[in-house]
Fold these 2 entries.
Entry 1:
Amino acid sequence: MDLIGQSYITSMKKKQDLRFINIITTVKSTIIKHDMIRLGDRIVVGVSGGPDSMCLLHVLYNLREHFHFELIAAHFEHGLRPGEDEKETEFVSSFVKGLRIPFEYQRPVRDIKNGQGSLEERARLARYAFLEEVRKRYNAHKIALGHNMNDQAETVIMRLLRGSGISGLKGIPPVRDGVIIRPIIGLRRDDVLYYLQKRGLQYMKDSSNADETFLRNRIRHKLIPILKQYQPNVISILSRTSEIIGMEDDFMEVRAREWVDTNVLFKDGIIGLPIHPFKGLHTALKNRVIRYLLKKRMGHLRRISYEHINAIIDMIHGKRPNMEAHLPYNIVVRKVYNWLLFDEKKELEDFYYEIPGHGKYYLDAINSWIIVEQVNSVNETDKEGVIFLDADMIEFPVVIRNMRAGDRIALWGMDGHKKIKDIFIDMKIPLDVRRAIPILENKGLPIYLWYINKMDNRYKVRSKSNNILKIGLRMEKTPLWEHIYKEASHAIG
Amino acid sequence: MDLIGQSYITSMKKKQDLRFINIITTVKSTIIKHDMIRLGDRIVVGVSGGPDSMCLLHVLYNLREHFHFELIAAHFEHGLRPGEDEKETEFVSSFVKGLRIPFEYQRPVRDIKNGQGSLEERARLARYAFLEEVRKRYNAHKIALGHNMNDQAETVIMRLLRGSGISGLKGIPPVRDGVIIRPIIGLRRDDVLYYLQKRGLQYMKDSSNADETFLRNRIRHKLIPILKQYQPNVISILSRTSEIIGMEDDFMEVRAREWVDTNVLFKDGIIGLPIHPFKGLHTALKNRVIRYLLKKRMGHLRRISYEHINAIIDMIHGKRPNMEAHLPYNIVVRKVYNWLLFDEKKELEDFYYEIPGHGKYYLDAINSWIIVEQVNSVNETDKEGVIFLDADMIEFPVVIRNMRAGDRIALWGMDGHKKIKDIFIDMKIPLDVRRAIPILENKGLPIYLWYINKMDNRYKVRSKSNNILKIGLRMEKTPLWEHIYKEASHAIG
């Protein structure tokens, strides 16, 4: 087989095929610029059999001595086009055999036709999982993929139209996590075809076209030709722009992370952002910090819009000390005095505890302690959450539970009973909070609602009461909460 | 005249004309968000008579009590379309008269048809100069212009296609220099037309169309409708993207400026960048710092490409201690050991000095001192620039001058003379440097070339020489240069 080597490049130089030489030089400088390959690296190349991956494999094969690395070719069969798929595998396999490097291929273990998300997304995930599996099996360092500059430009346009903001405009990263490398990201599609033609290499109709979305195809075949009428260099300009944006995006991320590392508290999945230092940040960094923390909390930023970020920043700057914003995926951002807490809205299970008598009991459902004791007098200085009852009216076991449909309670100065649901509605307590409010039940009837402090009038301690029962409910605080509530209570004075 | 006021908005609310209310709300929040107007501001509104500026004037007129500001309407007549121009002025004038606010207009003092740059650019500059002049005359604080969100999106696309990088993508700033404000930048063009229609307001075919470039018109009327097929919200998405990019661009600029302020030396128009601390910066900030310094040195960044910036950064990181890069507009960036100097390539005038005898003389053309003295021996430890001659061969006055066509010199070990031009060519000395090299002339003939250290063999001090003449050439250093050369000579060791 006729392969490119130093001698080949020399002979091409004589023929003045500068374009061919430029293609090799571009790949080389892409590798150097992004520090893609290190001495002794073992690299898994994803080869679909299409022009990009064939060019990638061939160029890398011929640069392997220049950069001192080893190659493994890996082909993933999607199993979506019976007949065609096998032909493709056969084609790649026989080509790789000629290069005398290891070849791995896989038919999907599970049918990727069914499952969550789009077919394209599932195929992509299965392909990446396979490549990663091959990388681990071979103890390899990198996975090389055949994205080119046109893919880059198409991605930038697609994301620009989608409104993905700066992080989207940076496009496909030349290196991701130090593992995924894209050595031909600096080549235009026509460079790839030119290379293949000059080397007399064959390729299959790129199977990745099959999992391209309709939008990408329209952008490639319709929109980009139109944009070229306005700017013939649109591909390289978009690629260049995304490179600069990628660089600056990284800088912003680094700054945001630095600030978070020295200012933000993390505990038990809750994130605590101190409001005062945050207010001093540059607007751009404020946006980045909020995005960074949301991503940290949610694991992604799907369905988070610019408006969400702005609402949170407005909340921080607003005068109201206690507010909350409800975001997608059950995320709640709470302003608690000088802190902003990123937490998850928890769907509380129903809970029901029988309290046999005096003592201290832990209620794990609401992460709280309940303390029941006999006392001699009502101590008015006692804290919130502590109630005093006429002990003679109480029969143990009492019950601590959350609300049930039809619950009623007799309140002070009222004849008859009132529906607990109506109390909640009157007080505008949101549905998910209602389920977390502990109710004290005695003899099968609700007699006290914690937090909103409503008590059945018959149980109150009166001058004639002989025995007083003190029941205190105290939330077990994590160190983060301790810290924040200490500040909060200090703020309340 | 029927004008919008609070009562009007209330009545519209009853009619559920939410779109109209949203338009007012959008302008209000744009003003607040960008802190465009302060209590008691006096604002000059540029009114062309087209839909945007008519809408702007009318909205501002009706918000003037809400935000407590005063208005002056100013109309600039380009004088490019005889007949039509006067009609437009008449239209704007009579409308403004109805509002009972001051009205200013101007026909161009000088014919803007002729001059440097494009007609559009000249018209724009003349218009801005007029508005600024009105602002000063009225002691006003702001100039309000009627750019809308479509203008913004068109600008972003135009610059994206031009490859203007991030600073281009940020588009039209809502506020520039605290003076130019654009209160309707948040309105789409169809909002503007809707507003005018609802208020029964007339307008002229926007005269700004006349100074729109062909490219902008094509983008507006052809490309944007195509992009809308891909993304119906393309206008607001581009506007939003440019807002975020603008914010982050500002952050990057602030960081770059901060770094420059504490690290870079400025003296006599020369900029000195210390290389060691620069190398530690994030890549994105490196780019920004170089761009910032070039802009500082050149006053603009025209014709400066990403490649220029990269070349400079590569030069900094390269191993060669002394290099220079030649940029457009005669800017030279020199690497002098641990410093990078941004300077202008100076076209040196011819110079010619007669030195009458012993003594110290200042040669202002080359900013240097020449010292002529009688000495007893050749001191080998003497510095560069100092020469020793057989004094008996010299006849005063000697001459210090730069090269002339036809100059020849007799060198060591050579029979006959050699053309000085050929010496320069052999040594690959660039043309502009040749003109700066001082030549010592005796009895009408060149006998020594400084810097490249070539001497006519007959003048050298020999064992038989009775008298020795020492001539030293020393460049007058500015403090910046002193500093840098001290480091440089330390580096040479």
Entry 2:
Amino acid sequence: MTRTASVASAAVGTDVTRVAVSTVIFSLRREPGEVRPTLVLPLVKRTRDPHESAWALPGGWLDIAENLESAASRTLAETTGLSPSYLEQLYAFGAVDRSPTRVVSIVYWALVREDISRTESFENVAWFDAASLPPLAFDHNQIVGYALWRLRNKVGYSQIAHGLLADEFTLAELREVYEAILGRRLDPANFRRQVESADTLLPTESFRTGSHRPARLYRYNQDVELADRGPLAH
Amino acid sequence: MTRTASVASAAVGTDVTRVAVSTVIFSLRREPGEVRPTLVLPLVKRTRDPHESAWALPGGWLDIAENLESAASRTLAETTGLSPSYLEQLYAFGAVDRSPTRVVSIVYWALVREDISRTESFENVAWFDAASLPPLAFDHNQIVGYALWRLRNKVGYSQIAHGLLADEFTLAELREVYEAILGRRLDPANFRRQVESADTLLPTESFRTGSHRPARLYRYNQDVELADRGPLAH
């Protein structure tokens, strides 16, 4: 092996396993004319092969001097300008045939509040309805499917919905977050009973006024973690 | 950079991130004289630096043509001879300072039935009480702590305990598995009521006889998955 060959093979990565970091970012969007919000995620249009011009999850290569979660935050900021309200490792995807060269992707999933997700506009980034994605690059459809499954599970036994809401919200707004995540309508009276008995919400003295009758604003009990991440919490 | 330098640096991995796969394997042991089983795990004594002669999780480097789960199974078989009844990805550990060179470890966790875990004896492998480990190599104490947390969570909402039991078992044996995992005693009458109402056990027509009065043998309902692994199930 000559030096040139060695450098070239390192550059294209045909003889090494490379580590990438990608992130599935969920947010909510209220489309004009739509009463209810939709669960959406940002994708980046690829500008080179493999899968040139296909949509893909935001991400990039892991730097040698960078922790995994830092790499997720950095690549997220570089590609979309977003900074998440919740970030958790999802899974390591490493099937041999998932890319022309060998790539193990450490995938994170994140939540971004609706207001923040609208503040930046990046080239080659677009937001998609999480429930109806086009065919994505690599195994990214499978990855999004798994992230949705994790989110739907977690919303049932944690305060994770908070990561998609402003600090204060009405019970109707909270219910709409659950409905957008679960993809189905929930009975308002049952929903109110369940969240009130769960003891994770604190009523405020403020009300949302508008075209409807005033609705009390709530906030999450900050003494309770957004989600129990066990000994890996930081 | 000369060719020699290139080969040397590739060999020690100072300028690349390498991917390793390790596995936390839980089993049960009934020590002589002890009535109740203990949750145990196998560790391998390291024979080279870093951390020479410290105990570490079974594992090894990911081959370029090998899937992650295959690597977990292979390194498990090579280092301990074990073949697990349950295997699931735990987490990717990738802190920059967890090793002198940059290593991202994709960690799996596994369950091995008690009878199988006794059939092989490998050099440099010993079984340890999961609740009282010595200081391990690298960040392996933290990794075992996280695996224990995952196992304790999962035993509450899945049939995962089955992975530590023979096909047929008494309710007392099942309760002992829960007690060993959770690290506390459970009320026998309450436990019986809970598992009977969960509908995941099927009574057989066989009984365990011995020094006590005959106890009915049960088996798990095979129509229910050991644990819901969502869209990643295979």
